[in-house]
Amino acid sequence: MSNFRQLAIDLRRVVSTPCRQLQLRRLSAKGKAPISVLFYHRVADEQPNDWTIPCDLFQEQMEWIRERFDVIDMQEVQRRIRQQDSRRPAVHITFDDGYAENCRFALPYLIRNKMPCTYFVSYGNCVTGDPFPHDVAAGCPLPVNSLDELKALAGTSVEIGYHTRTHCDCGNLITADDFRDEITDGAAEMRAALDMPLRYFAFPYGLPDNIPIAGIQAAYAAGFQGFCSAYGAYNLPGQDAFHIRRIHGDAEMSRFKNWLSFDARKLHQRPEIRYWLPPANNWEQTQELVG
Ligand SMILES: [Zn+2]
Question: Superkingdom, according to UniProt (predicted)?
């Protein structure tokens, strides 16, 4: 981003702050303050790419958040949405994929500062050690987390979540067996391998086209308490709390602050993902309904 554009974004945010703070105070008084859930991929100083941010910038972003927001876990995100009890601006931190370097700085930082985080991992890559398909396609295969690294997070502020078996685009899955393998069976294997409950699921790529209804139903059947998208939207109290909307942890500090600072225009910028769930949390029943 050019310095001029960055300056323009900062200036607009500062000038509009009093108005936005007033709007936010009104929403907060009614328990309707929007909740932001951030997603990151990789925090490292080596091999930078579009889904990596440097350690010092990550720390700067976390410090900026801690000074201004309640940093809450995913269950509290859902509680505030369901009970329309969001009276203070709040943020939850998530990561996708499972990059080994996150164990060096980002995760120890979050744990040390007791910041709740949901860490979504593609199980098969952690078992085989194979790099993620998007890294291979980009010509930069990067090391992935091992199962032992994930097990070591038990009992910390970092909760493991599930991100399919092979980091597939669920929008390309066709048969019921595909969904079963990538979501239901993979999650069951990962729960057994880690001896941990996996409560949340994040769709790889996370845009509406990557989130088919059969995938949402498979996630529900697999016992997940919620699923995450990644197309940039607030979570609003009173909305469906099974679908958690996420915002990118942008490497540009201006855009990052802009996203997290309340902006009434963003209350209406959200593609809807329409779906329905079967009455029972039961794979066989879901299969009948999916057809
Ligand atoms: Zn991913």
Answer: Bacteria
